[in-house]
Amino acid sequence: MLGEKILNYLIEKKIGEGGIGTVYLATHTQLGRKVAIKVLNPELVNRTEIKERFRQEASTLSALQHLNIVTLYDYWEDAKGLFLIMEYVEGLPLDEYLQKYGKISENKALEIFCQILDGVQYAHQKAIVHRDIKPSNIIFEENQNKAKILDFGIAKILKTNTPTQTQAGVKIGTVLYMSPEQVKGENIDIKTDIYSLGVLLYEMLTGKNPYNTQSQSEFTIYNQIINELLPQDTSISAKVRQIIDKATAKNPQNRYQNCEEMKKDILAIIQPQNNNSGNNSGNNANTIRKKNPAKTIEKARQRRDSSFALISVALLALVGIVGYFIYLEVNKTSENLTKNVADVKEFEEDKKPSKEEKKEVKEEKKTKEDLQIDSLKNEIKKIEDFIKSDDQFRKDQMLKKLVITDQIIENDEIGGEFTFEITVTNKLDDVKFKDIFIDVTYYDKAGKEIKTLPKEVESINEGQSIPFKVKENINPAKYTCRLKSATPYNYPNPPTLDSLNKEKENLSEKMEELKKRKQEKAPQPPKGE
User: Fold this and answer.
1) At what angle do helices 190-206 and 106-125 cross, to 10 degrees?
2) How many domains, the chain?
3) What sections of 277-292 are H helices per DSSP?
4) Residue 129: strand pairing partners
5) Whether residue 263 is found in the same domain as residue 116
6) 498 tagged catalytic
7) d(Cα 11, Cα 25) in Å, to the nearest integer?
8) Which residue among 203, 238, 273 closes a domain?
9) How far is the C-alpha of 401 from the C-alpha of 432, rounded, in Å?
10) Which of 78, 95, 132, 350 is labelled catalytic?
11) Global pTM?
12) Residue 209 contacts by C-beta under 8 Å, 6 or more apart in sequence?
């Protein structure tokens, strides 16, 4: 691409490369304006879903005009490919800046972060959730102390006020900055960006990500994101730590509800510091006052009398303290005589090994392979428990989308025949249900239950509604219909679970290898026995 022209822009050099596109520096041949041109990688041009994502980024950026968001100048498609022509920012991605210079001082980091909050808040007001906020998607211009957000390639436009859900099987965002709801494949909204912003601020202040991909397994990181607070770090002050903890709360309802709330708390820290730095000049001025000799002598006398009084009180207190300690020492001697007898008995008991010590001796007898196998079993158990818990949670959420409605058709009080229609509606478009049981409960006028009858629906497909009539020889004052149980099936797993299942398989293979190695090392019985 070097030396080629896109519209009126001459491509000069490559300045970045990612999984989907390559970014080049280019100059307008007539205006001399420098731009960044993002080019869709040639091998992806024929993949419809990737092209749509690239066009989505163009559509999203075109709606955003903000000081802290990289501006889109133009979009172009031709036989060579797809091109985003964007504002060129002379700066470093924040991840490269942190690698080069290390953590950022608190005051400077908070000032930069407020700019990022302004840009994200603007996008949220346009009903756009970024979904991939991380240091590499923030460009920092140190000369102008300015931050700009880029890469809205996976941003989601919220056409309604309802949260959105990622399409099954598509891993969105960078896992280290994902919110718990992203990891679990649940609904996401602007509070997902709030969570990622909290992780971003943590990294700016500490110079490192809260999760260690070198020493921690993917499962461990997922589990920490869902269940644990970000690690403590002395680089972060207590007040800023409170802000980060609120932004990264596991329950989205406990987070900041928008970026303005978060910025307000940050400004409450920044502004007092700025005000205090320039408000001490008046306190340093020397004021000349005329002294009154008589008043000076009187004050000196009062200070002397006060000193004598304080010395007297201190001496009395000292005498009392010494007497008290003598009393304690006498009592301690008699107590020690009694205690020594008891200590001899306790010594005999202490010589007996405790349960923990017995366990340690037993552990020492285990081979290296035994200990490794135990460790792998423990890790596999954790993954299995997590998968089971997550699967049950998702099933519970699915059942909420199986809606039961009813309508009375006929109530024959004389004949005692009561007829109504129940409709079961599956509001999910990627899940089927089977073994659906509905409890119909009838009550008399006093509210006492007459009887409960189960009704079964064999199965229901995605997006389907099934109506059926219920007729009983009963004359109730009221009735209720509620879902008792149902089994969702044929539903896709989120990518995190697929990844964990793969990790579990790898751990199981390692465990089998260790067992085989242990058997090979075991002493063989003599031949002929």
Assistant:
1) 160
2) 4
3) none
4) 156
5) yes
6) no
7) 6
8) 273
9) 11
10) 132
11) 0.58
12) 176, 199, 203
pLDDT by residue for the chain (529 residues), tens only, comes to: 788 898 899 999 998 887 678 899 999 999 999 999 988 887 777 777 777 777 877 887 788 889 999 988 888 888 788 888 999 988 899 999 999 999 999 999 999 999 999 999 999 998 888 888 999 899 998 887 899 998 775 555 444 343 444 433 333 346 889 999 988 888 889 999 999 999 999 999 999 999 987 877 878 888 899 999 999 999 999 999 999 999 999 999 999 999 999 999 999 998 776 666 555 544 443 333 444 555 555 555 666 555 555 555 555 555 556 555 555 554 555 555 455 545 545 545 555 556 565 555 555 566 777 888 888 888 888 888 878 877 887 888 888 889 998 887 776 655 567 888 899 999 888 899 999 999 999 888 888 998 888 888 889 998 899 998 888 888 788 888 999 999 998 887 776 777 778 878 888 888 888 888 877 777 666 665 5
Show the tokens assigned to 342.
């008891």
Residue 442 to residues 450, 470, 482: CA-CA distances in angstroms?
5, 12, 12
Same domain, 47 and 111: no
Both 80 and 99 in one domain: the answer is no
Residue 387 three-state SS = helix
